[in-house]
Amino acid sequence: MEQNTPPEKLTGELEVSKPYTEAAGVEAIVKSMEHILSGTGLIRGLKVLADLNQKDGFDCPSCAWPDPDGDRSKLGEYCESGAKAVADEIMTKHSASPVLFQRYSVAELLEKGDLWLGQQGRLTQPMVLKPGATHYEPIEWADAFQLIAGQLNVLASPDEAIFYTSGRTSNEAAFLYQLFVRMFGTNNMPDCSNMCHESTSVALAESLGLGKASVKYDDYEKADVIMIMGQNPGTNAPRMLTPLEQAKRNGAKIVAVNPLHEAGLLSFKYPQSVRDVVFGGQKLADVFLQIPINSDLALLKAMCKLLLEEEKKSPGKVLDQQFIQQYTAGYDAFVKSLDQFELSDLAAQCGQTIEQIQEVVDLFKYTPRLIICWAMGLTQHRNSVQTINEVINLLLLKGSIGIEGGGASPIRGHSNVQGDRTMGIWEKPKPEFLDALKRVFKFEPPRENGYDTVAAVKAMHEGKAKVFFGLGGNFAMAVSDTNYTADALKTCKLTVHVSTKLNRSHLIHGETALILPCLGRTDHDVQATGEQFVSCESTTGVVAQSHG
Ligand code: SF4
User: Fold this and answer.
1) Is there an atom of ligand 1 within 6 Å of 76 CB?
2) Are 319 and 310 in contact (CB under 8 A)?
3) Which of 159, 360, 382, 506 is most buried, by the most CB atoms less than 10 A from its CB?
4) Which atom from ligand 1 is nearest to the alpha carbon of 67?
């Protein structure tokens, strides 16, 4: 067993049980309260939850699902995952204070599980691990900043430093961070988006000119067909189930495309609905296309071919020819490119019959109010950019972009991952963004593209990068190859993590290591000018205030 991963004490037999066929319900409320009670008192917990995702409250630090544009539910505008993320931040029963670091050496902490590390509570004090030391010890803020500056200023080049960003970082912190890093002289700004929706950003920028969703929250309730590809709303954006349920009640059809029958796509019990809790949830997916992993491209091409055939049968009734002529380029070449594919081959590739695919095409052939959502199931493959471009091809054929009830809807993970990109957290900054920085802040920003996450890990592993700075996140555990990444981090002269709580990446360290505590989204931030707030951007591009 490798040194970096904790020895799993597997006790007893693996339990195999029937998969869930319904998401949320009363169980979600019970679980949420358990999370809250595990860290703080119920009254305090409920008081804080009452502000979660409210207009004058704070933005959920967990995922990027947007809040309703209109009224928010006073009963609670959060899901179990949101409650858990908040419970982690407002924990009072434990705190990861210097006492904890005195009691446990880094080696002993490495033996602990990730859940245990997270349950030790909020970090309270800057901590340093000196070269050769076994335990972290307290350090004053000024000394910590001096240590970082000292290490950065002796680097042969600013490109020997890596500045990572986790998607929990607020817009304001992200903007100042990128400015600091670029004034220091590098674009080495890998972020968690490199590991989740990078292919989305590339594909949408190519096809729509903007790497973001084209839908708003209330488009869901106006859609006629919602196709959910490679995404599991019940787990990674549970509150998405509410507008999906409303869309169903408004007559929409939902198509799930997934290798797995995910409970959240089968049925949803809205915890705030007595009807759902008593009589059972709302069936969500009308059609479930269970396709092999990464066969979405074949399915989408098959759908486009069938749409073109339907257009031949009913000219002008299926494709939005006026939209295609006025707003798109490359239509003829695209149609021609489909000729090289046999429908039967495409259907076989995605494990469906042509009839099954036709059944779905029949749902949206006469309406442009089609929304296609996707997440990691589409973005984590070598051909993901191509697949996502095919999603856009289908939507453009239908004229479903820029209309009510239709559009492209990538569902991003981390709560402000999209905002961070908007703020300039990107290793490939656009020249016009750098020109603007130069104009406003009177300095010459670096123009060379920097390292993305994979390149950053390789650079550390090869000794080309000597300082790693993580603004939030759990880098070592987030990157796919944990052990290679861990070995890379250990080659550094200095590793720095800005965090709210203890995690495993703090224990996989360079020659010198620093942990710097920071405020979380739930925290009051009172400065000389009074109470502060931050802003975050949701997966539908809505920028909202967040008052801790
Ligand atoms: S859906 Fe996402 S943003 Fe909303 S409460 Fe749940 S975890 Fe938080």
Assistant:
1) no
2) no
3) 506
4) 4
Q: What is the pLDDT of residues 207-221, one digit of tens each?
A: 999 999 999 999 999
Q: What is the CATH number of domain 198-410?
A: 3.40.228.10
- Is there an atom of ligand 1 within 6 Å of 214 CB? no
Q: Choose one of 48, 49, 53, 65 to mutate for the ligand 1 pocket test, by most ligand atoms within 8 angstroms of C-beta.
A: 65
Q: How far is the CA of 415 from the centre of ligand 1 (A)?
A: 8
Q: Assess whether the C-beta atom of 178 lies below 6 angstroms from ligand 1.
A: no
State the burial class of residue 230 (Cβ atoms within 10 Å of its Cβ: 0-12, 13-18, 19+): buried
pLDDT in tens, 528-537: 999 999 999 9
Pocket test for ligand 1, best of 63, 67, 417, 536 (most atoms within 8 A of CB): 63
pLDDT digits 0-9 by tens, 157-171: 999 999 999 999 999
Torsion region of 216: left, alpha or beta (phi above 0 gives left; psi -120 to 50 gives alpha): beta
Cα 323 to chain centroid, rounded: 32
- Out of 3.40.50.2300, 3.40.50.740, 3.40.50.720, 3.40.640.10, the CATH code matching 95-195+417-521 is 3.40.50.740
Domain assignments of the chain as residue spans, ordered by start = 19-90, 95-195+417-521, 198-410
Q: Are 260 and 281 in contact (CB under 8 A)?
A: no
Q: How far apart are CA 455 and CA 199, in angstroms?
A: 16
User: Contact, 538 vs 66, CB < 8 A?
Assistant: yes
Q: Are 299 and 289 in contact (CB under 8 A)?
A: yes
In the reported structure, the alpha carbon of residue 52 is separated from the centroid of ligand 1 by a whole-number distance in angstroms of: 9
Q: Number of helices (H) and strands (E), helices first, in the chain?
A: 25, 20
Q: How many angstroms is it from 425 CA to the middle of ligand 1?
A: 23
The number of the ligand 1 atom at minimal distance from the alpha carbon of 78 is: 5
Is there an atom of ligand 1 within 6 Å of 411 CB?
Answer: no
Q: Kindly give the distance from the C-alpha atom of residue 68 to the centroid of ligand 1, in angstroms, as a whole number.
A: 12
- What number of other Cβ atoms are within 10 A of residue 258's Cβ? 20
| Residue 513 φ/ψ, nearest 5 degrees | -140, 145
pLDDT digits (tens, 9 = 90+) for 258-282: 999 888 888 888 877 888 878 887 7
Predicted TM-score (pTM) of the model is 0.93
Nearest CA to ligand 1 atom 2: 63
